[in-house]
Amino acid sequence: MSKVNRIYCFSFLSLIILLLVGSCTSNSHKAYLAEKPTVYQKNIAKKKLLFVSNQDGDREIFITNLNGESLKQLTHNRRDDYDASWSPNSQFILFTSNRDNGDSEVYIMHADGSQQTNLSRSPGYDGQPRWSPDGRTIAFTSDREGDIAIFSMGLDGADVRKLTTDNTASTSYTEPVWSPNGQWIAYRKQNERAKGDLWLVKLSNGQHRQLTNNEKFDDDLPRWSPDSQKLIYQSRRDKEYNIYLYDVTSNKEFKLTNLPSADSRPRWSNSGEDIVFLSTRGSTGRTQVFIMKKDGSDQLGLTDNRFQVNDAEWLDDDTGILYVSWQSGNVSNVFLADLKSGKHKIISPAKGYQSQPLLEPAVFLTRSKKLPNHLPLLSDVTQKRNVAILRP
Question: Helical H runs in the chain?
Fold first, then answer.
């Protein structure tokens, strides 16, 4: 079995485990959220929302707003397009596509879907593209040199640099996540047993730093706090998934959830005060949306336990949660939970499977050098790039 297939098979098995471990919920969240401040004063209902849908037969990227208006399909082909993300200035969209003879490639396009360009241009697997905070560099994963490693490149696909390197056989590096201050990338280093530890690489000098270290545990899906001081992540230990926090300044780890269930996929609020996560706690075994304080206190359920949910993400003013729910058999749609009123509404209902909702950024770049309003043209030498390596 190939390295890519092993990783995806393990991810699939992990998902099955998450769905089989038990769920309960509490709807007492109104008091918890009654005094939550608005982080950004903006008419958020008109903001653009990316999501992935297979309503035309394969996974494609769509855009709408929070009112479900102005729905537009951005990609059109007979292959899968997915894992879309906004540039910090909301002008461009990165995504992964296997439209090129089945190879997984990193693509970029304008926010209106125009000028779709293959940036990675390498046989095999390239994926998990992630914007740097200043929007000028892209981190991604690739097997172009054998085992899956983490690379970076510019917006034109040039200046490719290898950020991880190891002589150990059957080692993979995945899940790159930029710190908001742009100084570090957190990532997951997976061993031959498909167990992962969390590491950091400092972009200024290529120094690598190990955070978690246990060959029997599996740490995954790290996310930085807004102040770049902490990481939250899911970890499978003693056959249970829980949420953990690692303080990179004190080098201390904290366990935020501690139940015989599956707690997973944590996301920081934009204020850094709260965390949304998924949990199967309770009797039905359905994954539900929960929130808690950053120290793990006040864990409260937002969904009513009747349907399976996934892909929970904060609105940029922290007043709501986007999530995906299966409320019609094999059909899933994007929903919005208003945290002050407790109401839930469906956004752009459609047949098929909707997933990966992501609202356009709230904070635009204020640097003196602005990002371009057009995509740079790929040069003729992009298929013959020299790759620099940042060594541990």
Answer: 3-20, 29-33
